[in-house]
Amino acid sequence: MAADLSTIVKAYDVRGVVPDQWDEPLAELFGAAFAQVTGADAVVIGHDMRPSSPGLSRAFARGAAALGVDVTEIGLCSTDQLYYASGALDLPGAMFTASHNPAQYNGIKMCRAGAAPVGQDTGLAEIRELVEGWSESGAPTPAATPGTITRRDTLEDYAAHLRGLVDLTSVRPLKVVVDAGNGMGGHTVPTVFAGLPLDLVPMYFELDGTFPNHEANPLDPANIVDLQKRVREEGADLGIAFDGDADRCFVVDERGDAVSPSAITALVASRELARHGGKGTVIHNLITSWSVPEVVRENGGTPVRTRVGHSFIKAEMARSGAIFGGEHSAHYYFADFWNADTGMLAALHVLAALGGQDGPLSGLLAQYDRYAGSGEINSTVADQSGRLAAIRSAYEDREDTTLDDLDGLTVSTTDWWFNVRPSNTEPLLRLNAEARDETTMAKVRDEVLAIIRA
Q1: What pTM value is reported for the model?
Q2: N or C end of the chain: smaller count of CB under 10 Å?
Q3: Catalytic residue flag (residue 99)
Q4: In CATH terms, are 14-153 and 154-370 the same topology?
Q5: Three-state SS across the chain?
Q6: Per the record's keyword annotation, is Protein transport included, yes or no (predicted)?
Q7: Annotated catalytic residue, options 57, 86, 99, 260
Q8: Domain 154-370 - what CATH class?
Q9: Where in the chain are the domains?
Q10: What's the pLDDT tens digit per position in 169-199?
Q11: Which fold has domain 372-452?
């Protein structure tokens, strides 16, 4: 019987519970399908610290090698380290991780040579079709000569590449607390930060895919409480948290207050525009703060608004020749990193910006954090389309109000905006609101939530 992959093949990746939803035999078929769809002679594979990752990764390698493809295994790595390997070696790549999901999950993030994303419309649908067919009719015909499987360590090269993209020569001594959440940041941070004038206070650097201290998802405020407390206790200059596969970076200022990813996007955008002579396109998704396009314009750049999701950001980066892109979820994309996302490079920019002047991080970021935002608020809703229609009906006839449908529903005025968009995988509506002051934002937020939850 053919495997049902509808629950594990998502829009941008493969993700599910191991071994209930997928296992090593399926991983082997995914490896063969990846080899066939990319048509590559060689691929590169890496994995995170989850207990199931080494076995799944090796099974995928066997599947690709059976079809005659040479495999380079880089072993334990962060997702952006895998993107580095894909770019530097010019090979399609596969990363075994479930990012911030709980321990029983695992997944595969796949890319073509040069870290170009593989999603539903760029090969993932074909990969799924092949795997489903082979799971019913038997494994694919092996090549006459199988490919080789070799090991290669890319950590030092990855770190050197990142440090070469940021001027770190004038960084003053800083005390920084880093919460790796028992994820891959514990593996990469010591090498990337080596040689910088940092008093590094490590938290949860032990690689442990069971996440004994807290979920490796810093987007949830509950998971940065330990970091905030430690920053205050240590009198540190800042705190940095990474998610499980260390491709996202979250920042806490010297007071222990969480910094909006939009403020980091605006800060990095200004620095990247300066690197490119005050010219360039910067991508931001439609729920980043008004601050982002304002700062981009003030620094000579051209802001481009896009849908939420890395496949849309990366596609727009490539189409427009953008130099940088940022999302509310703390994904940061760089043209100099093959248009791929790397939280570690964003962290280096923050360290360089803070260390290049004498003031505290809160003062530095004030110019980039100009409005009151709600953050993302999720509501469980049985009838997503019905609730969206009710919101549209409530606002479409109001004076001075603009509605657009780029991604869900966005309603804007000169003083505030909000966006409501449905989850692709759960019965949720996600609300983000922003206004010129906290009182107005709270009023708009509560008004919209009342309609969503009616």
Answers
A1: 0.96
A2: N
A3: yes
A4: yes
A5: CCCCCCCCECCCCEEEECCCCCCHHHHHHHHHHHHHHHCCCEEEEEECCCCCHHHHHHHHHHHHHHCCCEEEEEEECCHHHHHHHHHHHCCCEEEECCCCCCCCEEEEEEEEHHHEECCHHHCHHHHHHHHHHHHHHCCCCCCCCCCCEEECCCHHHHHHHHHCCCCCCCCCCEEEEEECCCCCHHHHHHHHCCCCCEEEEEECCCCCCCCCCCCCCCCCHHHHHHHHHHHHHHCCCEEEEECCCCCCEEEECCCCCECCHHHHHHHHHHHHHHHCCCCCEEEEECCCCCHHHHHHHHCCCEEEEECCCHHHHHHHHHHHCCCEEECCCCCEEEHHHCCCECHHHHHHHHHHHHHCCCCCHHHHHHHHCCCEECCCEEEECCCHHHHHHHHHHHHCCCCCCEEECCCCEEEECCCEEEEEEECCCCCEEEEEEEECCHHHHHHHHHHHHHHHCC
A6: no
A7: 99
A8: alpha beta
A9: 14-153, 154-370, 372-452
A10: 999 999 999 999 999 999 999 999 999 999 9
A11: TATA-Binding Protein (3.30.310)
